[in-house]
Queue: 2 jobs
Job 1
Amino acid sequence: MSEKRLPLGHGELLELAGQLPTPFYLYDEAAIVDNARAFKRLFSWAPGFTNYFAVKACPNPTIVKLLGEEGFVSVFAVVDSATGKVLAGPQILARGFAEDDNAPPADEFRAAYEMGAIINLDDITHIDALEEAIGTFPKTICFRYNPGPDRTGNAIIGNPVEAKYGVTSDQIVDCYKIAKAKGVERFGLHTMVASNELDGSYIVETARMLFNLAVRIKEEAGVRIDFIDMGGGIGIPYKPGDKPMDLSQVSAGMERLYSTIIKANGLDPLEIYFECGRVITGPYGYLVSRVLHVTSKYKEYVGLDASMANLMRPALYGSYHHITVLGKEREKADHMYDVTGSLCENNDKFAIDRMLPKIEKGDVVVIHDSGAHGHAMGFNYNAKLRSSEYLLRRDGSVDMIRRAQTYDDYVATLRFEGAPVVV
């Protein structure tokens, strides 16, 4: 079972919260890097193994650079060239993935092509759309596969039949035939059928599905798949009672399938990629917030200076995030609270009916497992300003890696009546 740990002691975090304006995010450099290295070692048997870090999970250039130094190149939903170069750097993105995610504008296709990214097409109609956008066709191409009724999704990503993503079973072979006719020399196959999954057998069965599909594509399209992208979807144990996925068993299961399917059908070497984000940084990011109010209505409420604008997963998905009250680690969790933010929305809650120690105004709380899909999903509704991000370095120092948003930032794009129009 998972144990919820803090990157610093309670006293050290309280001192830090006294020095820095709350709310803020804190990431643990040593834990992120050590975790990335362990992930790579587990799949070292796989030819050309790479994890294409899902930048959307934690789009901070400092974090992306740390992972880039560990060989974790980047995967983006297609972005404009300026955004891509700022977030990942042209050298990293040039070796990365760009996914078209169902409805890409032509300029995003052009940006991905110009940066040298591998383009992962989501639909058979996007073949012509890509060629029209860039005036040619890449020598390397990948297609995202949607297995439809042949697989079930999970609660977060949904049923594949109802998903907007991916090429169908009936279309997938034709996609490779068309791409081959257009002169493509290197082919990839991708899927993403789960999100935040803790059952390792689901990942192994996804590998089986893709390996068998690679054999089918070879037989029916005469195309040899050069790399398979398993997607992401590996979850983390948000609840203390959750059991983390046994990645060593996943790796061993995939290796056995590689031997019995890929090697047996003459497709070795076949490079294996993942595009995990959550499992890489998720457990090592923390949202630190201060208690502004403790109120008693029909229920007991703890009001924080953070809101769902800082972390929206609990409001969006009903997700659990563990909460630690700093300095009260030895006190009994014998008070039931709803832990809320200050937005004018009743679902602005980090926890409902959560048992915690007695909380008082001014207490500092830490919301765990916020290192992926946390700050990244923030917004400005109700004129809430985005919080700062800090990195706890291996030597114990703390660096600001994103300053807090200001009012001037918030209004910078507004144009008032009477102001000149800039085209």
Note: Residues 78-95 have pLDDT under 50 and may be disordered.
Job 2
Amino acid sequence: MNIVIIGLGTTGRAVLKELSGHDHTITVIDDDKDKVESLIEKYDVFGIVGNGACMDIQAEAKMKDADLAIVLTRSDELNILACLVAKRLGVKNTVARVRNTDYRKQIVAMRDYLGISMIVNPELETANEIFSLISLPSVAQIEHFAKGKASLVEVVVTPECNLIGESLISLGRKLNTKVLICAVERGDKVVIPSGNFTIEQGDKIHFTADAKTLGEFLAEVNLMRSPLKNVMIIGGSRIGFYLADQLAKKKYKVKLVEHNKAHAEVLADTLSKVTVVHGNGTRHDLLLEEGIMAMDAFVALTDIDEENIIVSMFANKHNVKKTITQIKSDDLYGMLDELGIHNNVSPKNIVASRILSYTRALANTRGSNVLTLYKLVNNQVEALEFSAKTREGFLDVPLKDLKLKDNCLIGCIIRNNEVIIPGGNSSIQLGDNVIVVTTHKNFDDLTDVFC
């Protein structure tokens, strides 16, 4: 595909990194010459220095020939204008970052006129993800396929979990609830496991399950935790605001700590059902005074990664059931497990993943067959949903008789709205949706999975 990216901040660079290895022709636009030149050197892309909302600059980028414009500058207004100009020049699809929720409502009503195909709001997307993690206390990450019918779930194997010491073969015989373990993180290694693989304490396991029976499985393996009720949020950013508002509406007791007095007063006026505290949320005496030991969940959302890590470690020390940490720098991910931080979120990576999935879906109309895509394990693993829409040689053949490429696994089959956790005798039929988990990159069709 021919793609133009306007705006090379942290999110723009994250999106470029995700898209650069997928055989796209990419042009980047930014008014910062140094950013453009450094990315031209790092990636095989074209670069233009200038205002991305300017028609002349977009014409120079050959916007009329582009399949997709992704506009991610810091300004909502500039992003909307840039999409309007791009649509006027003939681009087929546009993605715009719009943070102001008032604009979002207007854009939905004026979508055709403004020419915006997809809206992304990093802060709202991140708040939604954190809300999901708090709603499911046992889960470190969850992604949905087939319109929510099937789930791909990450959990940490804790000491009380009765998966420890079991091979995947033995689990298949013992478990009443059917799931399929697709990937395992052990230290800095990622494994697509075979039947003889044995689970150990501390493993992070990724498994597919019918969304309706997820709770039953967690209870069966002794990973079900009691619901969380009391939540402390450090940082009254947009993410903190969105999250506190969502939690309060669902009857959680929320305490939000904000360092800036004027902003704390605004939050207190706006969030009537949230206890807003003015103070430095990185001070241990304030956290103790505000009752961190009585909290079920703790969310660190300051602008500084190191502060978020330190206060999250403090929360873990005081036995808070679930700690969620915002991490912006990719360089820090390697040390998080050793520090006991298992639930972390990155706004730029969440948005990059959403845009990548949207891009692959667009490519579906141009020969690709990917319906949904998620990146797992710091982008080391892909989970893809394919549609078996053409008759191929692998259809109606038991999976045990098919040869899959190394580090590939059929995680789930959805047939007539039924979720099938596959075994060796299962087969793929015409019309099925199939979830594949793999360490390979750039799979575009179900045929790519098989040797």
Note: The first strand starts at residue 2 and ends at 6.
